[in-house]
Amino acid sequence: MSAASRVYFSRRVAPLLVLGFASGLPIALTGGTLQAWATVEGVSLAEIGFLTLVGSAYTLKFLWAPLLDRYVPPLLGRRRGWMLLTQLLLAVTIMAMGWMSPGSALLPLALLAVAVAFLSATQDIVFDAYSTDVLRREERGAGAAVKVLGYRLAMIVSGGLALILADQWLGWGRMYMLMGVLMLLCSAATLWAPEPEQPVTAPRSLRLAVVEPFREFFSRRGAYTVLALIVLYKLGDAFAGALSTTFLIRGAGFDPTEVGTVNKVLGLAATIVGALAGGSIMARWGLYRSLMAFGLLQAVSNLGYWVIAVSPKNIWLMAAAVGVENLCGGLGTAAFVALLMSLCQQRFSATQFALLSALSAVGRIYLAGPLTPPLVNWLGWPGFFVFTVLIALPGLLLLWHQRRNIDALERSTS
Hints:
single chain; 414 residues; 79% helix
């Protein structure tokens, strides 16, 4: 076994698989799976639409992140203590959802779902901070990959598998109770996970916990350029993926079953392989070299969709293009998460990671989403996918401009 592969079995990296699973498990249970349950129970479309607001906590989590930097639970330390508490409460609230039905108790069920989303977002804050604090520099790529793997596996379990279990075997209520039991089992990984090798004291006051993360970050040389890099690095990928399903069905003529099978099975598998490979490569290459190489691959892989757009309909061509694009996206995600970790100062890692991860979503939500439709209307599908490669170039140029700062950042956290 090579040294790059052994890093996945490190005591600091291995628990992140189960902790990543715990992080991803509640999301579908308050999103798509809950909407499916409400649909089966005959809830009106308007009421189902309001259920989409349940997940607001995931976009607002940076608001209470300073509390988790400031206050320390009495057991298991600043990070693991909060993780264990949120996991136990999540197990209880998810199981409690199973005692209700959207057909007869929609409001109480929705309120429980809001509580689950809040606890899940809180767990995400502390889990991201914990992984930032506990991993050594050479383990960050592998740690990011393992987190992605656990998270994606949980999305399968609480998404597609949960629907099958509810429909064919257990019913909706018992399925939710089973998911609560799974969350309870995940808490064992929190007990097994080690404390950071260099624990630091919490901020002395809540005011410091709120103000100092910003002051510390913006006092760094090139701080605003780094923020721009976070927005731009995966922007081409975000534009290419914004309407990819619509393109494959409406633009390329594939049916929903073909698209669903390729995207959900092959696409997910390719993303996982890319993330794991990215973690191993980063252990040898370092942060800047990996970010640049994976960013280039991420950009060029969008041309696979251009090939689909200009070629006759071919399921194997579609599978190859989707597979390559997801593989390269997984590589880029592993490096990008490692970059976010390296940018966080340990005393304020909960607040800084929550802010940086929220910023990383700006391009996907506020740029790619609204701008993709008019770009497609203007350029057509082939021209649009060529344009997504060009959209990726400013982020890569900014990365090259910041190469010395990133190298210095990596050395300072080794």
